[in-house]
């Protein structure tokens, strides 16, 4: 038993005494998926990466190794050489833990609600995974006795876990929230944490092979301007190039409408916001393009799913929506919620499949390979 595990029960007692239990699953991001309250829609500004000289880091006890990374939001830390009991608190880390056949003890309730719908191949395995809430409830975390916690912090939503207290339970690899912007960032980081760098390289090679096939299938159609928007009962937003599906379109080489080419400070100057730009119905003209991909979030809650379905049916009947050039040309495509959460290898490839279908009019011959 490691030092982290020996003090787990002490931490439980301290948490109970101090009353510092965190937000529960009933308050997870699925219940309010707008720009201010859902991880996939938070403006993820890179933090300053650690500049600590790896040679100067602390030595680790047997069975642990020193870990530093450009996508780490903290100083280097000691992590298990072969972690087996893991709590993962974002989509990419959950997928990587499952693909490496590690034991996923727990995650946030919103992930347990959405991921079985977005990646059904994981549904059965997720039935045994605990919900520790969002932010993670430290009492639950301590009782599960993890040997590693994977988390992301520093967004407008807040932290996925209280790192200062959680690191007394187990090592916490705390990622820079910039990993939310591009599936390749998060999957690379978590692969490095889990000693699965070769797996990530194989994923990337497979993804790039499928991108090359898509480019060839598109031909001159790669010059089309592709609009990406999300719409739900909480509003409609333009998704810029520095969002998960935006990064995929950029990888392919597809163009964006002028209204959706702004990144960072340029987006702030144009819209007073970045990445996810809320628009009114009166400004749906900003959503036009040669083709439009639009979507809402997935939910396993029947009432929520019914409400979002009703919203979508009303949305596409709006006269201003019907007036858009892409809509009139039959080039507006309602796509599933994996566009919203395309922060993982599997979900990014599902977005590619839609691009093959709707833009190239074909199916990919290169399969998605899981190493």
From TrEMBL:
Family label: Belongs to the bacterial solute-binding protein 8 family.
Position of the signal peptide: 1-25
Keyword Chaperone: no
UniProt keywords, alphabetically: Coiled coil, Signal, Transport
Any one of the GO CC terms: outer membrane-bounded periplasmic space
BP term (GO), one: iron coordination entity transport
Pfam families (alphabetical): Peripla_BP_2 (PF01497)
Compartments it resides in: Cell envelope
Protein name: Periplasmic binding protein
Domain Fe/B12 periplasmic-binding, first and last residues per copy: 85-363
Keyword Signal among record annotations: yes
Coiled coil regions, renumbered to chain: 197-224
Gene3D superfamilies registered for this protein in UniProt: Nitrogenase molybdenum iron protein domain
InterPro entries from the UniProt entry: ABC_transptr_periplasmic_BD (IPR002491), Bact_iron-sidero_bind (IPR051313)
